[in-house]
Write a structure and sequence with these properties.
The protein is built from 21 helices and 13 strands. The chain is globular and about 75 Å long. 43% of the residues are buried. Bound molecules: glucose-6-phosphate (G6Q). Glucose-6-phosphate binds next to loops.
């Protein structure tokens, strides 16, 4: 193994991949399939209840060998072990990265700073379960004695996207006597719309914030407290209508939430890796404690697969390496994630944070500017809706956009032939993207000569097709963990810190500076650039007109 200190672009496998990519060039998938009739069966993996068909990628056996070599030369094995062991691999924040401990089975051991954290993880899960059961059964009553009917999660970023995605994804399993809403935006509209038809006496707020200092969340939480107490009249009502999920007990109690109503987690859980911690309290209330444990079991199954499977047969490793191949050697800038399941409508949005906040970095762990591309842009929408909007560009545009198509063998809502129609589109899109339609084929259909170029599909557009049996809590856990570890694989190759997020800081600081300039009575002494100064003046002028 080459020391990971060797800069990425100097690693032998990297150089070999560069040469190989020139040689492989535009060899079409049509040819790769024609040359190997077993390709479709060979380049597929069934593992832990997921099956990945990666045969429609622009790779040969040699490409895959070289990518695995790259993983080895980048010490992926060592990095995986370091993460699972609890080493402080988030170097810029000097933190361990142990979301895997959140789903470690009871009785196992993960030691952080000399202490086994698994018992603590399960102690919190048990308290969450007691609370979730009390809400679900109605034994937990609101201040006036009414049952809780509405659960509102207040959080943002990692304290919102996981809960909202999981709620939507697992709605089928959700207790339908409860309404779930999610407030994240500091735009007052979010709170106003989430609460306009609700009775405060029946409403529970879960304030999710790792730090309990986040501007958006604390602003919404204060607004929620005012909304509640304006109606219920007594400050004491807060105890029955607010719970908090945080690592910051001091701020939680200062806000007025009793310690008994606080669910903790730890600094070794990153926000975007926290949906399976107490941040998932709304998920647990929705699907029940046993459903939540199934979700955790799904995460854990992929953790074990990632930790132990050889790289050649390792789902997240392969997906991560294929992304590196497209981004660094074939020039792809984006990856589309296209779930063919309506319940997964928020999955691409969730993945945007997971992937882009993790790998949108321009320096290595050592702080040196990278001389290669890092995290691609992830985006997507559920199929088949996307087919009637942006797929045109994927099929016939000028960009290379690798796609992950996600489908299920069985529908949770089997209505007529809907599911066959849905799944036929998964297979047809992957087929069309890979093999396209040649000019000869278009002509043979009797197309007018002038239209032939417009109707040609060049093909050679790569896809992964990921299938599972049914969308269950366990399968959702597997899908999320799959992308978590794919992101880790990519970040390891690029040598970046996938677990910090300094890039969100500057805007926050500048906004903090501008708030008083928008609110001050007298004319503020603006010291920004001329554009920012002018924008602030225009806003203030309009505000003045409104209040006069
Ligand atoms: C995620 C990020 C970020 C974070 C939010 C909310 O990895 O750190 O999205 O989750 O800024 O932070 P709090 O949970 O501290 O409110």
């Amino acid at each position: 193994m080459t020391s990971p200190i060797v800069p990425l672009a100097l690693r032998p496998s990297w150089k070999a991949l560069e040469a190989h990519s020139k040689k492989l060039g535009d060899v079409p998938l049509r040819k790769l399939f024609a040359d190997d009739p077993t390709r479709g069966e060979r380049l597929a993996i069934d593992a832990v209840g997921l099956s990945l068909d990666y045969s429609k990628n622009r790779v040969t056996d040699e490409t895959l060998d070289l990518l695995v070599k790259l993983a080895n030369e980048s010490d992926l094995r060592g990095r995986i072990d370091a993460m699972f062991r609890g080493d402080k691999i988030n170097v810029t924040e000097n933190r361990a990265v142990l979301h895997t401990a959140l789903r470690a089975p009871r009785g196992t051991s993960v030691v952080v700073d000399g202490e086994n954290v698994v018992p603590e993880v399960h102690a919190v899960l048990d308290r969450m379960a007691t609370f979730a059961d009390a809400i679900r059964s109605g034994t937990w009553k609101g201040f006036t004695g009414k049952r809780i009917r509405n659960v509102i999660n207040i959080g943002i970023g990692g304290s919102d996207l996981g809960p909202v995605m999981a709620y939507e994804a697992l709605k089928f399993y959700s207790d339908r006597s409860l309404n779930f809403r999610f407030v994240s935006n500091v735009d007052g509209t979010d709170f106003a719309e989430a609460t306009h038809d609700l009775d405060p006496a029946e409403t529970l707020f879960i304030v999710c914030s790792k730090t309990f200092t986040t501007l958006e969340t604390m602003t919404n939480a204060r607004t929620a407290r005012n909304w509640l107490t304006a109606d219920l009249k007594y400050e004491e009502s807060i105890a029955k209508h607010f719970v908090a999920v945080s690592t910051n007990e001091k701020e939680v109690t200062k806000f007025g939430v009793d310690r008994a109503n606080m669910f903790g987690f730890w600094d070794w859980v990153g926000g975007r890796y926290s949906m399976d911690s107490a941040i998932g309290l709304s998920t647990m209330i929705a699907i029940g404690p046993s459903g939540f444990r199934e979700l955790l079991a799904g995460f854990h199954a992929i953790d074990e697969h990632f930790r132990t499977a050889p790289f050649e047969r390792n789902l997240p490793v392969l997906m991560g390496l294929l992304t590196v191949w497209y981004v660094n050697f074939l020039g792809a800038e984006t990856i589309a994630v296209l779930p063919y399941d309506q319940y997964l409508k928020r999955f691409p949005a969730y993945l945007q944070q997971l992937t882009m906040e993790s790998n949108g970095k321009h320096v290595t762990l050592a702080g040196e500017r990278v001389n290669y591309q890092t995290g691609p842009i992830y985006w997507g929408e559920p199929g088949t809706n996307g087919q009637h909007s942006f797929y045109q560009l994927i099929h016939q545009g000028t960009r290379l956009i690798p796609c992950d198509l996600i489908g299920f063998r069985r529908s949770l809502n089997p209505l007529g032939n809907h599911h066959d129609l849905l799944m036929s589109n998964v297979f047809a899109q992957a087929e069309a993207l890979a093999f396209g339609k040649t000019a000869d084929e278009v002509k043979a259909e009797g197309t007018a000569e002038s239209l032939v170029p417009h109707r040609v599909f060049e093909g050679n557009r790569p896809t992964n097709v990921l299938l599972a049996d049914r969308l269950t809590p366990e399968v959702l856990g597997k899908l999320v963990a799959l992308y978590e570890h794919s992101v880790f694989t990519q970040g390891t190759i690029w040598g970046i810190d996938s677990f910090d997020q300094w890039g969100v800081e500057l805007g926050k600081v500048l906004a903090g500076r501008i708030v008083p300039e928008l609110e001050s009575k007298g004319e503020p002494d603006l010291k920004h650039d001329s554009s920012t100064n002018a924008l602030i003046r225009r806003y203030r002028a309009a505000k003045g007109e409104r209040s006069s």
